[in-house]
Amino acid sequence: MLSFFTVDCLIFTFHEGKLKVLLNERNEYPYRDWWAMPGYFVDKQEEMEEAVNRIAYEHTGLKNIYLEQLVAMAGLKRHPEGRILTVAYMALVRYDDVKNKVKPVTNYMRQAKWFDVNEVPELAFDHNDILKLGLEKLKRNLNYSTASFEILPEKFTLTQLQQIYEAVLGETLDKRNFRKRMSNLGYLKELDEYQTGVSYRAARLYKLDKRKFLKLFA
Amino acid sequence: MLSFFTVDCLIFTFHEGKLKVLLNERNEYPYRDWWAMPGYFVDKQEEMEEAVNRIAYEHTGLKNIYLEQLVAMAGLKRHPEGRILTVAYMALVRYDDVKNKVKPVTNYMRQAKWFDVNEVPELAFDHNDILKLGLEKLKRNLNYSTASFEILPEKFTLTQLQQIYEAVLGETLDKRNFRKRMSNLGYLKELDEYQTGVSYRAARLYKLDKRKFLKLFA
DNA sequence: TTTAATAGTGTAAAAAATACACATTATATT
DNA sequence: AATATAATGTGTATTTTTTACACTATTAAA
């Protein structure tokens, strides 16, 4: 008697200055018609990491996203049929890479949709709890991970970077101090390129210098 | 068909200047005669948190320890019978509270024994991997948690506190700077008591001021 | 009384964090 | 062409935190 369990994916992105989370509208028992994190059963002969990638793809259309384990939930009442353990994973994706791709390829789910993290409805199962844990983890790791850069376009403005910090920390930051701090970190590459398509002064673009980042943290 | 899985407990303490981990010598298939983290199957009608407390007690004799979830492991090959998912928990205990109590009350395990974290043998299942993750978590959280104080006697010397920091971080620290930093944190209560039974100058004892600690982190 | 072992202490320098306001620039509007 | 709009980009002074560094004090045992 082997383990029978599900995985769930908490997928964040950043768009129009807001932190967003990807949810599915369920088309199946239980919690049919409810919004839920993309998730499903792991196959018997499938490694959990394969499963979570497959399931993320089937339920959202997203491929090759980097999912990291968040938490296991095993409450006896989390599923109407009894305890079904789930392992929740978390991923960060660039909105530009995925904006036209979020569409389930199974019909277990009716649609996939980005929600502002502050406007998430009551979700199926214990998914609101998982979301809360995910946001806390994002906050804890903000300064020690590339999370902000995975979620931004590859070339980003300092204002965008600051917006992520503010969204994740839930507080506003001083622009000058933020910029000073970021450039002192030493792993931002200043580009000779500027924002386009804005009706005001275009901001300079930056990208993450991964080599320097890795030197600092490994 | 509900979830069938195990929990494992990674239990740390601090003794004689060393960080230690509690392991069982297994008396049952699989990995009979191997050392392993205390762990066993969760009962069908038992919440996971209850299970992990029960199992910690049955395999080590320790009660009322605070266990926090670390990671779920679900490798297809982690168990010879096929995938048995396990959820690993982590706890920190005071050596003085438990020194005479680590004894299994089931006979699934032959004995429970403290190992220096640097002298852990090859363990059953994927327990060496779990240990590594636990040590990393300990390190990440060192400055933001009461971990060091849970693992020390309630009244401790600053040298003991420093030894924990050094053991967890794996580097030596400057005594004066360490003491300055700790007293600046503002949540150490200086007692009018001193170490006894040492054959050299007795050090002053301190304890954690939990109220002040909580004010800072909540 | 001497030895051994650890406790306990201060200062100067460097680095990082904070508080704070205005001129600049690109586009859109009239 | 002039103006309005909206966001960009920048500096300094102050405070706080971190770092580097070495000797005297105290206790018990020999």
UniProtKB/TrEMBL annotation, chains A, B:
The keyword Hydrolase is assigned to this record: yes
Domain of life, source organism: Bacteria
Nudix hydrolase domain boundaries: 2-138
Ranges annotated as spanning the membrane: none
SUPFAM superfamilies to which the protein is assigned, alphabetical: Nudix, Winged helix' DNA-binding domain
A family per Pfam: WHD_NrtR
Coiled coil: none
Molecular function in Gene Ontology: hydrolase activity
UniProt keyword annotations, A-Z: Hydrolase
UniProt KW Glycoprotein keyword: no
Protein name (Swiss-Prot/TrEMBL): NUDIX hydrolase
